[in-house]
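Fold this sequence, please.
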Amino acid sequence: MSPRKNVDNRIVRQLTLCGGILILGYIGMFCLMQAPAFWYSLRPDPVRSLIPEIFGPINALFPQRWVTLDRTHKFALIAVPIYLAVVVLITGPLLYLLRAMSKSGLSIYSHRKTLLRRIFGFTLGIMFILLFQRGLLSTDIYNYEWYSRIWVEYGQ
């Protein structure tokens, strides 16, 4: 096998490993976001109330104390280092891949289908995990909703 092909295959293996780590990071984020201490609860979660058959079993996967954890409980402080570890699990592989792929001079044309399939596969896996994500880390989405409603209904 040519040295060029070995480099390309190594990058594909690294992409696969980093994609697996990313999925683990997003599973960790999913688990963390089950605790209300991490997200803004300005409104009841409409998706969970509309489809209790799906989200009821998801809540049952976690201890009751976790799904009712608020920001004032002492246990909420323990979750902060766990959150930071999850953020590292998500950003670390991305930064590593950016550096590795830019240094390798990857012959993208020879592995184009393989790379695209893996990237799309990992992206679909991550999006599937986020589909069942609870809560939001920011209230921006609510602000956009309120501003658009004011604009549409009142012309302001």
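The helical segments are 3-32, 46-50, 52-60, 64-67, 75-104, 112-131, 140-154. The mean pLDDT is 78.
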